[in-house]
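Posting for a labmate who doesn't have an account.
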Amino acid sequence: MLQLCMVLAQGALTVFCDPVEDLETRERLARQPAQFVRLEYMQITPGKEQAYLETERKWAPIHEAFMRDGLIFSWGCAKARPNEVGVQYISWMSFHSLSALENLYDEANLLNYMEEEALESLHQETHACRTIVGQELLISEAFTLHDPFISDPRKRPYFVLGFMDPKPGKEDAYRRMEIDIFRPAFERWAQQEPNFWGWALRKAVVQSGQVPPGAYRTQNVYFDSLAKWDLDKWETFMQAEFKEQAPMVAEYRTERRVVFDILFAADMAMQKERQEWAKLKGSWRAEHERGGYRIKTIENYRETLMEYDPQGNLLKSTSNPMRIECRHGLNYFLTFHEQGTWTSIYQVKGDTWYEQMPWIFNDQVKEGPPDEFLVYRRIK
């Protein structure tokens, strides 16, 4: 199964190398959350709910350390409200690459974060109070264009998972409906309702054990409690947006919804990407050996690049969406241009930014050696 997932992951990432002229698509690529999410469905040993919550409290700082070291993107656990699906508790973990799972919970790795005796005790406590009855690996299909920098899950007390099961022969039509109709509608709703943070669609590529029906999962995330919603406003919006699509929805899929209250979530401030953004934001200058120089200005999800001749005359200026990914122990810098994507491994040391030229990623490009670097100095 892992080999299958690796093939899927590679296929999903090749789109980053293709030319993309549409600005909205490039903005989405820049702001895309982690490509993968692992969900674990848990049943609690009778009478052990408080003990289970205590074990998750102890695991939380370990997962925050995983985030700090760039091993995972996010983690948390939530309790399901009464439902017909049979779900009690779930935990989630998101990451950019499947290699994140290879040795994450190996004892050798965990001992980097906890003493051996304490780790053994935590394992015993965890196994005594809960059983993982099902697991699934989800891959991102679509999401609303929101600001991930305000996505601290500790500030949003609940979310809704839609367990979607497309009707036979209707999977492609169902998927297009979610992406072409529901996604833009929820983006409009986010502009009207400040308590609504965003929406996402994911597809299960691997499932094992007892998992809810269907291969697709939608997620609606909220900043505040449902009690504070203007429900009349919500009903009016739904009627206006989806009245014509109502028959289509029932024709394309079966839906089961479960509301989850977030109990624990790793602090997003610990996230490796957040730390890297803090290092990169500002303006940087790199000198060209042939004369002249370039200045890069980095803001959240955007790079502005200006090229100057030796006399200081501006030759060109471009501004494009960008993203940072921390995976495999390396920092990746991606800028999404109309002509394609600039991908670089980089490192920031104090006020110096070392950016590896992208020839290493493309055998067809012979412009320079694979170990060539641009060196930027911070100017503000």
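Reply:
Got it, the structure tokens are right above this. Residues 198 and 221 are 5 Å apart (CA to CA).
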